Amino acid sequence: MTTVQYSVEDAVATITLDRPEKHNAQDQQLLVELDARWRDAAADDAVKVILLRANGDNFSAGHDLKSEADGFAKPGLGAVESGFRWEAEHYLGFSRRWRDVPKPSIAAVKGACVAGALNVIWPCDLIVAADDTWFSDPVVRFGIGGVEYHAHTWEMGARKAKEMLFTAGSVTADEALRLGMVNRVVPVGELDERSLDLARQIARMDSWGLAQAKRAVNQTLDIMGQHSALQAAFEIHWSGHANAMVRTGRPLLSEGPLSAADAGRNGK
């Protein structure tokens, strides 16, 4: 059964996370399907804008850590090497590829947007948040310095990024708007309609002009160091996993990994 829905209408490709019973936690199947749908949208000349959304009350509770642990286990490789390779592809690699798709993308988020969920929304060009949305990256409590696509400083500024990471606290939709992390905050009941209206508005623009505008902004960020900073932070992230493996034999220090069911309670 698929965990990601896909449709195209009015030059807008809508990609929908569809694992609501698990708060859209990202197992291997969901991540691979999500990447495939991004590739479909990128390759389809009829698509001018990509809209990413989720079914259920929460956008995503982040990584499904059981699935992640299964991905680490590669015959013939040490745990650090196999885990590093797996995350470099499925987390940092996927996020970078989505970020550089030459079409505007919009993330429509609601409810919990925790840890690995940031890997999914931050590559998008625009973010529309429902007024019940909260954002959190609580993985410091597990001995890790932050999620793999470590754009925290770019998205919210250095001091707020440190506060969220150091305290495992959350950022509300309104605060994210003030920080510039999201573009708009709308009532949760209007999220789908308002996000689709924005996508359709953008889809009326010239496709080459949109691609050029996106490329110009992204290249400016890269000249400022974003690409290199993300890679450097990923290396730091993996020093946390390696440390945990040496100390406990597990990729996280905690005996109680953050699960999809617990994310909404513990991350806020």
UniProtKB/TrEMBL annotation:
CDD domains: crotonase-like (cd06558). Transmembrane segments: none annotated. It holds the Pfam family ECH_1. One of its GO terms (molecular function) is catalytic activity. Belongs to the enoyl-CoA hydratase/isomerase family. This is Enoyl-CoA hydratase. It comes from Tomitella fengzijianii.
